[in-house]
Specification:
Layout: H1 2-30, E1 41-42, E2 54-55, E3 57-67, E4 71-79, E5 85-92, E6 107-111, E7 116-120, E8 131-132, E9 145-154, E10 159-167, E11 185-187, E12 190-192
Parallel strand pairs: 7-8
Antiparallel strand pairs: 1-2, 3-9, 3-12, 4-7, 4-10, 5-6, 5-9, 10-11
């Protein structure tokens, strides 16, 4: 009987310890990633209501943002409204850590109606990028996104964007001029938010 009581006390301590670890792990997960990280504020701009800076709206999520093994992710967005808009990209690594702050890099202020911007996780030989991100040392601390995600924010939900995974080394070339492999490019689906 005494052995059973000792076993029960150990089990209660073990279950209590596991529950505490589970709560700590949940607290870490709950404070990171595209859905849980607070939306950034834009720097002051000429966009209506943004003279002293303004909040952003989440417009798109992307799962599978990559900056690794010669692949980069390019995000291309067009202002489809009739007014100036601010547009920005935030990227998150596989740990859910935000890897760039838009006040440093990743934001485009005063994007004209009909204008298109391109921001990428790194430069490529085949596409034009208006900005390329330098990642901060949060999360995995490396200059790579192995299984990353991204969030496109703007001052309007009425922007249109697409994303591509791109081979950063190769270019499109006339086959008669050489035997270089054509660059690999693949569409990265974006999730439009309501």
């Amino acid at each position: 009987m005494e052995d059973c009581e000792i076993m029960n006390q150990r089990n209660v301590k073990l279950i209590g310890g596991l529950a505490a670890i589970g709560l700590l792990a949940r607290a870490v997960v709950a404070s990171a990633g595209v859905a849980d990280t607070p939306l950034p504020n834009f720097s002051p701009s000429s966009v209506a209501g943004c003279a002293a800076g303004c909040p952003s709206l989440a417009v798109y999520y992307a799962a599978g943002a990559i900056k690794n093994n010669g692949l980069e992710t390019d995000f291309i967005c067009t202002n489809t409204t009739t007014a100036l808009q601010n547009i920005a990209l935030e990227v998150f690594d596989e740990t859910g850590a935000l890897r760039n702050a838009i006040v440093t890099i990743g934001q485009f202020l005063n994007v004209a109606a009909g204008a298109t911007i391109t921001v990428a996780t790194g430069g490529t030989n085949v596409l034009h990028e208006d900005q390329t991100l330098t990642l901060n040392t949060a999360g995995n601390t490396l200059q790579q996104l192995r299984n990353g995600s991204a969030r496109i924010v703007s001052t309007s939900k009425s922007i249109s964007c697409t994303a591509l995974l791109v081979d950063k080394f190769h270019i499109i070339q006339d086959p008669a001029l050489g035997t270089q492999a054509a660059p690999t490019m693949a569409n990265l689906p974006l999730i439009k938010l309501p």
